[in-house]
Design goal:
Elements: H1 31-46, H2 50-60, H3 65-80, H4 82-91, H5 102-117, H6 122-137, H7 142-152, H8 157-164, H9 172-179, H10 184-194, H11 199-208, E1 215-218, H12 225-232, E2 235-236, E3 243-245, H13 257-260, E4 264-266, H14 269-280, E5 289-292, H15 299-311, E6 314-319, H16 322-331, E7 337-341, E8 353-359, H17 374-377, H18 380-400, E9 401-411, H19 420-429, E10 433-435, E11 453-454, H20 457-460, E12 466-471
Parallel strand pairs: 5-6, 5-8, 6-7, 8-9
Antiparallel strand pairs: 1-3, 1-4, 2-3, 9-12, 10-12, 11-12
The structure holds S-adenosylmethionine (SAM).
S-adenosylmethionine binds at residues 271, 294-300, 318-321, 324, 343-345, 359, 361.
Length: 473
């Protein structure tokens, strides 16, 4: 289908006639789809993060209730499924996708998502999308958008996948990747970490494509997980003693009382478990000086700080980005945590720490559920740059650790290069003892053969966090 094929007003056989091109009608009031489309523009044009743009936009425009839920579903769902939607749209065009104007493509993605992955009726999905694109790009494009979306609507998602996905026998990873809207390289990295190209890979990718639950952490010493669950209507988490899982659709939490009062914060249960592990790794001798070397925005620093307060320890929190350091300051207010804006590779801090957490910058492949557009933005080449930085940060941490001290290395990724690869190599080179991290995750099932811990959404309901614990001789 090309722009020329479908001019506005040209009737299409057997389908509802597109609207006549006439004087511009006032736009239909559709705040949810308008917000979702504006989020897609921001992600594509400004490299914005959907999960940061949308909440601000909903607040600014006072969109709430069902409209907010629909905007969220459409903005995040469309971002998450982008590659799959693009393949379907491309199959309906007679020109490369790269020749389609950016705003028009965002509109087509939004429309195709509604057609393939929601129960919104075809006429509403198509009509509302055509209206939005017409408003932003002009009437001349309406016929084209209408025609492409009508073609998309001729099959459901399963039929499109059947037509376009690689053969499952010949290319199981490519096939699962296509079915679950993941780039192939991401699916391959999951397969390598799991050691599986079959049912478990499928389960991992499916869980990664589902909307995640929101987890809260109850601040130790302030409120128990039971109390927090009772206040919020959530459920006590299965593994973290401080965790609460909220029911889906809990809405904007920033204003809820426990969070405002700093009794609780939003934090994935896997992150909680890793921060707790960093504070519990076995140690002989003093246990008072703790360091969080990559601390922004401060989730783990706050949990470590609360645990440090209970046992008379202190935490230094290092962060290279000043704006993220400010977020840490906010998160650790009233806790025994000192924030330093510095490069962790040369922080200038006094060596001799008893415990150090290196929660290193990483590809984030373990939290793709929470960052809707990330899977399509990340590139394999990002990983090699990151592993260099990760190794440098671990090496700097080793220099700051006292003999007998423990270093916990965490990334939110299952990619072997930034997990076992970087840790194994750096530990060998520096003659560190690798401890069995599984012992620091009591009650957590399916942790494999050790000594490292890799959590997974499909096994544990957490982000895919990796944790290694090393002791300096
Ligand atoms: C994975 S995040 C840490 C998350 C944090 N621990 C939490 O739980 O909220 C990694 C952080 O490291 C910071 N960072 C990147 N390079 C750094 C460096 N060379 N030194 C210190 N921090 C760095 C990033 O800005 C980012 O805030």
């Amino acid at each position: 289908m090309s722009y020329q094929d479908r001019r506005p007003g040209r009737p299409s056989r057997g389908k509802p006639a597109p609207r006549k091109d006439g004087p511009r009608r006032p736009p239909v009031e559709d705040p949810a789809r308008r917000a979702a489309l504006d989020v897609l523009y921001a992600v594509r044009e400004r490299d914005a993060y959907a999960n940061l743009v949308l909440p601000d936009l909903l607040r600014e425009r006072r969109i709430s209730g069902r409209d907010a839920a629909l905007a969220t579903e459409l903005a995040y769902g469309t971002s998450r499924a982008q590659g799959l939607l693009d393949d379907v749209i491309a199959a309906c065009l007679d020109r490369p996708l790269s020749k389609v104007d950016g705003k028009v493509l965002d509109g087509l993605r939004l429309g195709a998502y509604q057609l393939l992955r929601t129960r919104i009726p075809t006429h509403a999905a198509v009509g509302s999308t055509v209206d939005l694109v017409r408003e932003d790009v002009g009437s001349h494009i309406a016929g084209f958008v209408n025609a492409v979306l009508r073609t998309v609507s001729e099959k459901d998602e399963a039929a499109w996948v059947e037509q376009l996905a690689p053969d499952a026998e010949k290319d199981p990873i490519g096939s699962f990747a296509f079915h679950t809207a993941h780039p192939r390289w991401v699916a391959r990295s999951f397969a390598e970490a799991l050691g599986d190209k079959g049912a478990e890979l499928k389960a991992a990718l499916e869980a990664d494509d589902a909307r995640p639950e929101v987890h809260l952490v109850a601040r130790p010493g302030e409120i128990s997980a039971d109390e927090l669950a009772a206040i919020t209507g959530g459920e006590v988490a299965p593994y973290s003693p401080y965790g609460v899982h909220l029911p889906s659709g809990s809405g904007d939490l920033a204003d809820s009382e426990p969070i405002r009062e700093k009794l609780a914060a939003v934090q994935d249960e896997g992150s909680q478990l890793c921060a707790i592990a960093a504070t519990k790794a076995p140690l002989e001798g003093s246990d008072e000086r703790w360091l969080d070397l990559c601390a922004g925005p401060g989730g783990k620093a706050a949990l470590m700080g609360a645990l440090a307060a209970l046992q008379g320890a202190r935490v230094d929190a290092v962060e290279i980005a000043p704006h993220r350091a400010r977020l840490i300051e906010h998160a650790v207010k009233d806790l025994p945590v000192t924030v330093h804006v510095a490069d962790g590779r040369e922080s200038g801090l006094e060596p001799g720490y008893d415990r150090i957490l290196v929660d290193a910058p990483c590809s984030g492949l373990g939290a793709l559920r929470r960052r809707p557009e990330a899977r399509w933005r990340r590139q394999p080449s990002d990983v090699s740059e990151l592993t260099k930085l990760q190794a440098e940060l671990i090496t700097a941490a080793i220099g700051l650790l006292r003999p007998g001290g423990v270093l916990t290395y965490v990334v939110c990724s299952p990619h072997l290069a930034e997990t076992e690869g970087v840790v194994g190599e750096t530990a060998r080179r520096n003659k560190l003892e690798v401890l069995d991290a599984r012992e620091l995750f009591p009650g957590v099932p399916r942790l494999g053969d050790g000594p490292y811990v890799q959590l997974w959404p499909h096994r544990h309901g957490t982000d895919a966090m990796f944790c290694a614990v090393l002791r300096k001789p």
